[in-house]
Design goal:
575 residues, eight-stranded mixed β-sheet, six-stranded mixed β-sheet, flat, disordered C terminus
Length: 575
């Protein structure tokens, strides 16, 4: 064999060894690459879920909105306030470690009532010793700050400036009565000595005039009514009605029960007239209390008046005036030196109501509606109450009939549309809702007729029985339109100009409740927090990002498996 052939075989042999070495190196690098690739996939999955967690916990998304669970909330903090809050520092320099509260609205509208200012508590919470030091108005035009600071309290994440304080300061310094924008500052402080101020624009949309009270003492001899006058305000400061009057007397500081009747109010004329007998009753009451304690009644009494504004704000002692130094006093007084407070002769007792005759029949005719039902015991109580009420209040009419008459009563139920319900009733119900919803309004009442010879007696028909002697149980079917799995139900009742929640029990689409009076009712429901969207609040995310991630993982695993199979086949061939 020639030398050339020998060298060629050696070259080929060496080339084969080099190829084997190269293939082994490729397989090793492939296994390392596959491991690294799987590590990248796992890290990517962890990163996506971490981002989901941040968004679910309230971190802002790409549109500058914060998310809580599956609820998106718009932020209302202006850029100026964010920069201001981030750059705030206190004199002690400790605010770099703990951020003090700031106002979260750049512009707040005040249109009567208490002023509510939303704040970000920063690094504090309601349990920390953080307080609102008040609010003040900055006059940019004149370049000064009003000396008087509006009182304010911090309740949760809201600073509240009471309406009374807004009136008093505005009355003394004539601010917040003109429409326009005011630069306002709210201060905060801690017991540790840290403090800060946060600024916002206070918008007043309409001009107003504060009511004016003049200090006066009226002579009262008990023979004539007493009239007090004032100049009514306008818009935010207009007095709409008088709710109560307090007569305050004596060295011991005694006041009789507030008067809720016995007076007239003319808001256009700005006059309040109190009936003479009501004043004397209050003075006699206080005199009796003071005499028992060995104290003198005196000769003067302060008249404190509770009122309501046209914006619906209750005012306690609206007729107070302020002197220099911020001291307030009641503006209206009476001098009763010449008033005879001798107790009047007792009023004779009314004739007792005659006992019902054994011959008088009272029967319950039913409900007249399949939607509501009562027990036999409740029906018997209605019969008894209707008989007692009619014999007490229609004694003269019944006397003409002798004993030959019968009383029949029934329970009426009528559905009411929201449009037919008085606004005062709806407002009273709304004050108790707290997130619940009204499913249906009802009017429930007991009516009675007096029958003679089987016919209703004229003038004794459709008599409303307002009150029962005891409570009865009513069972009301829940309308199908209101029924829904997971809902809970309650009955609201409007009585004596107030709304109340009745004790009730729901079973088999029927709600049962106890009552003894009859007027507007409302069936109210609440969605169960454990159903609906809340049930899936903690479930895994199954949106587009998760689907894309799963597809990516499967694709990469397919490629990795393909490479592994290919390498194994190659290895088997070369063996």
């Amino acid at each position: 064999m020639s030398e050339t052939n020998i060298n060629g075989q050696r070259i080929i042999a060496n080339l084969g060894k080099d190829m084997d070495t190269m293939r082994n190196g490729i397989r090793k690098r492939l296994r390392k690459s596959l491991g690294f690739l799987l590590l990248l996939v796992m890290l990517g999955a962890m990163t996506v879920h971490a981002e989901d967690g941040e968004k679910a916990s309230g971190a802002p998304d790409d549109n500058g909105k914060a998310k809580e669970g599956n609820v998106t909330m718009e932020g209302n903090v202006s850029g100026d306030l964010e920069n201001n809050a981030a750059g705030q520092e206190t004199e002690t320099g400790t605010n770099a470690e703990k951020k003090l509260p700031t106002v979260t609205e750049s512009r707040i509208t005040w249109d009567g009532g208490e002023l509510r200012i939303p704040v970000d508590l920063g690094d504090y919470s309601g349990r920390d010793d953080i307080f609102a030091s008040g609010m003040r108005i900055v006059s940019e035009a004149d370049g000064y700050v009003f000396n008087s600071r509006f009182n304010a309290t911090l309740e949760g994440n809201m600073v509240i400036v009471p309406f009374r304080d807004l009136v008093e300061v505005s009355d003394r310094e004539q601010i917040l009565t003109k429409a326009g924008d005011y630069t306002a500052r709210v201060g905060f402080y801690t017991e540790a000595g840290e403090s800060s101020e946060s600024e916002f624009t206070l918008h007043v949309p309409s001009d107003s005039t504060v009511w004016k009270i003049t200090s006066v003492t009226e002579k009262f001899d008990g023979k004539e009514d007493v009239t007090f006058s004032f100049v009514n305000g306008t818009n935010n400061y207009e007095i709409e009605s008088i709710s109560s009057i307090e007569v305050f007397v004596g060295m011991g500081g005694v006041n009789a029960p507030d008067l809720t009747s016995g007076f007239t109010f003319d808001k256009r004329a700005g006059t309040l007239t109190i009936e003479k007998e009501k004043i004397k009753e209050a003075l006699r009451y206080s005199k009796k209390i003071l005499d028992g304690s060995g104290l003198d009644l005196g000769t003067e009494a302060a008249i404190n008046v509770g009122a309501k504004t046209s914006k619906g704000i209750d005012l306690y002692r609206f007729n107070r005036i302020f002197w220099e130094g911020g001291i307030s006093t009641t503006a209206w007084e009476i001098d009763f030196t010449d008033c005879d407070l001798t107790e009047p002769e007792p009023t004779p007792e009314p004739e007792p109501t005659p006992n019902p005759s054994d011959k008088t029949v009272s029967e319950f005719a039913g409900t007249g509606s399949e939607e509501i039902s009562i027990s036999k015991e409740s029906a018997a109580l209605i019969e008894k109450s209707a008989l007692a009420y009619i014999q007490k209040n229609y004694a003269e009419e019944l006397a003409v009939l002798g004993e030959d008459y019968k009383i029949t009563s029934r329970l009426n139920l009528s559905n009411q549309s929201a449009a037919n319900v008085q606004q005062t009733v709806k407002d009273a119900f709304s004050s108790l809702l707290n997130g619940k919803k009204i499913g249906r309004y009802y009017e429930i009442g007991i009516m009675a007729d007096v029958l003679q010879d089987g016919k209703a007696v004229e003038g004794l028909k459709e008599i409303a029985i307002p009150q029962l002697e005891e409570k009865i149980v009513l069972s009301l079917k829940i309308p199908e339109s209101v029924r829904k799995s997971g809902r809970t139900y309650q009955m609201f009742h409007y009585k004596n100009q107030k709304a109340e929640v009745l004790n009730s029990e729901t079973r088999d689409n029927t709600i049962s409740f106890r009552t003894d009076s009859f007027s507007p009712y409302a069936l109210v429901y609440a969605e169960n927090a454990n159903t609906g969207n809340a049930a899936s609040a903690n479930s895994p995310k199954t949106g587009d990002e998760t689907n894309m991630l799963l597809s990516l993982v499967l694709a990469m695993l397919s490629v990795a498996v393909g490479f592994t199979v290919f390498a194994m086949k190659r290895k088997a061939i070369h063996r």
